[in-house]
Write a structure and sequence with these properties.
8% strand, four-stranded antiparallel sheet, alpha/beta, single chain, 10 strands, 570 residues
Length: 570
């Protein structure tokens, strides 16, 4: 055919294909960048405008990531929880969701009962009622388009749709999203369940709310304070004494200091009529003091688990504890809760695995473990960087070896140990600058000869090292680090705070030298005593600055003086 267009040479065809692919990739990258910027600045209307334009042009297809960002923005706006966030954060979270435990807080930056956005420190963006309705409507349109294009959903997709369901108070839809995740062989997380649970609690749908809770437990997902508070409010409203009792103990194991709202619900329960008759069926056969004490001690102290004790109305008062942990209202001695040795062992193993994974370069962490086996045990671990840099943020301030030495010597004397504390310090702190002073050189040499210092290598995070050593030897850890960073969230939010409370020694400096704030002589969590009284800590409690507690007593209790509880030592 003389007029037929001659086919391009093979290499030219490949070139055309490459150019087409390059343009397509460029367009997709530009779309992603634009959507990310909308997420960064919480510009949900701008994201919807981009979506409409791209759909109208039909040149670029949305993928799972861009769909999820759009759904996240729409659901956040529809629920009134839109905040600016860092671009790319959602993608990082989606990738991190396959790493580590499914309900790790590090993976849950937007896991919040109200659907908090990515940047916790930023303020919520004001969204009008009309914009909320529009975002709710467009969110479902976008989700339907995603399904129509057969773009596979992931956990973030289902969670975003569940949050859209919150805006229309459709608990069944939110719960159905969790169930669909199981069909898609995806592991639900706390943020996946939270929308359905909160809707049902808000609507006072008792059966459905606790059905969600049972589904969560079966999936191995643990509720946190927000979810437990919602369930406690529901149980209080319905006067369900057994549910309340069970939930109080779940809060006891999960929450260190209750938020004002949660503490308010607890107080509401104890001041209610159902609480006054709680345990009435057993009033003629209350367990003997001996039975209660045996149950109390078998559970490690802090609770007996035998149900409501005493008879009649409860008396709720605000109280404080003295430095020894004695309630100033009722005279009850609060105790230090035992840490299960098996829990400690599992925690050390988990910490070791995480550290080896994160510090895997040249097996440096395993080398550290071998070093500990040769030179341990130790009775105290010192976070060298935290101590040496304490109060040094002034002109000419720098790493203070004299201060570090003072704290090291002082803690050895404070705990009455014959062993030298172990100092963990990044190796860069031992070279150049303050480390070149004659005093520092002399100290470093003395610590090294005594195997009282370990210097962590380049590229490592010394936090893993000092934390592991303290857990491994069940000893005190000297640091003012609050351990709230990403790294510590990897460890979960159940056992770690309990361990930290028992082992962290904070310090300050005075003219006379270091002042040590030793672990509290009591645990800052809900405590149920053998006498039947309850003590509920409010958030912000710190043994160095005692906070407010709720002291809850009831007629028919044995008096605290008659049933003195001994402090339980680990």
């Amino acid at each position: 055919m003389p007029n037929a267009k001659r086919a391009a040479p093979y290499d030219q065809q490949n070139g055309d294909d490459r150019n087409h692919k390059k343009k397509k990739d460029s367009a997709e990258s530009e779309l992603r960048r634009s959507i990310d910027m909308c997420s960064k600045f919480a510009d949900v209307m701008g994201a919807i405008e981009i979506y409409d334009k791209v759909v109208a042009e039909g040149k670029v297809a949305f993928n799972q990531y861009t769909y999820n960002v759009l759904l996240y923005l729409c659901s956040s706006a529809a629920t009134g929880s839109l905040r600016p966030g860092k671009s790319g954060t959602i993608d990082k979270q989606q990738k991190s969701s396959v790493q580590g435990k499914q309900n790790n807080p590090v993976n849950d930056k937007l896991d919040d009962s109200k659907g908090e956005a990515l940047n916790e420190t930023s303020e919520e963006v004001v969204v009008t009622d009309e914009e909320r309705r529009l975002c709710l409507e467009r969110g479902f349109v976008i989700y339907e388009a995603m399904k129509l294009q057969e773009v596979p959903p992931n956990e973030a997709t289902f969670t975003a749709v569940a949050r859209l369901a919150v805006a229309k108070e459709d608990g069944d839809l939110a719960f159905d999203m969790v169930k669909q995740m199981a069909n898609a062989k995806l592991s639900p997380r706390l943020r996946s369940y939270s929308p359905a649970l909160h809707i049902y609690c808000k609507l006072k749908n008792f059966e459905k709310a606790f059905e969600v809770e049972e589904h969560m437990l079966a999936a191995g997902v643990q509720a946190e304070e927000s979810e437990l508070e919602a369930l406690l409010q529901l149980a209080t409203d319905f006067g369900l004494e057994y549910k309340v009792y069970s939930l109080l103990h779940r809060i006891r194991t999960t929450v260190r200091g209750l938020s004002p709202s949660c503490a308010g619900v607890v107080q509401q329960w104890f001041e209610s009529s159902p609480a006054a008759s709680a345990g009435k069926s057993n009033w003629d056969s209350l367990p003997s003091p001996k039975t209660v004490k045996a149950a109390y001690e078998s559970r490690g102290g802090g609770w007996h688990g035998l149900g409501w004790l005493g008879r009649g109305n409860w008396e709720v008062k605000s109280s404080v504890l003295d430095t020894g942990g004695v309630c100033q209202e009722c005279g009850q001695q609060l105790v230090t809760i035992d840490i299960d040795p098996n829990e400690t062992e599992m925690f050390a193993k988990s910490l070791s695995e995480l550290a080896c994974q994160r510090e895997g370069k040249n097996n440096e962490f395993k080398k550290f473990q071998a070093w500990l086996n040769r030179h341990g045990p130790f009775d105290a671990i010192v976070d060298g960087a935290n101590v040496g840099l304490f109060n040094q943020n002034f002109v000419d301030g720098g790493f203070n070896f004299h201060q570090l030495n003072s704290v090291v010597k002082g803690i050895k004397e404070k705990i009455g140990s014959k062993r030298n504390p172990l100092i963990l310090l990044h190796h860069r702190r031992t070279r150049g600058g303050p480390a070149n002073s004659p005093h520092a050189i002399k100290m470093l040499k003395r610590w090294q000869e005594a195997h009282a210092i370990f210097t962590t290598p380049t590229g490592s995070n010394d936090d893993w090292y000092w934390l592991y050593a303290a857990v491994q030897y069940k000893c005190v850890l000297v640091t003012n680090d609050e351990m709230r960073d990403h790294l510590f969230h990897l460890l979960g939010n159940d056992f770690f705070p309990k361990w930290k409370e028992r082992h962290q020694v904070r310090f300050s400096m005075s003219k006379e030298g270091p002042v040590y704030h030793m672990p509290p002589p009591y645990s800052i969590l809900i405590q149920e005593s053998v006498s039947g009284s309850w003590h509920i800590p409010k958030s912000g409690n710190d043994v160095s600055q005692p906070g407010e507690w709720l002291c809850v007593t009831r007629p028919g209790h044995a008096k605290a003086d008659d049933m003195k509880e001994e402090k339980l030592k680990e």
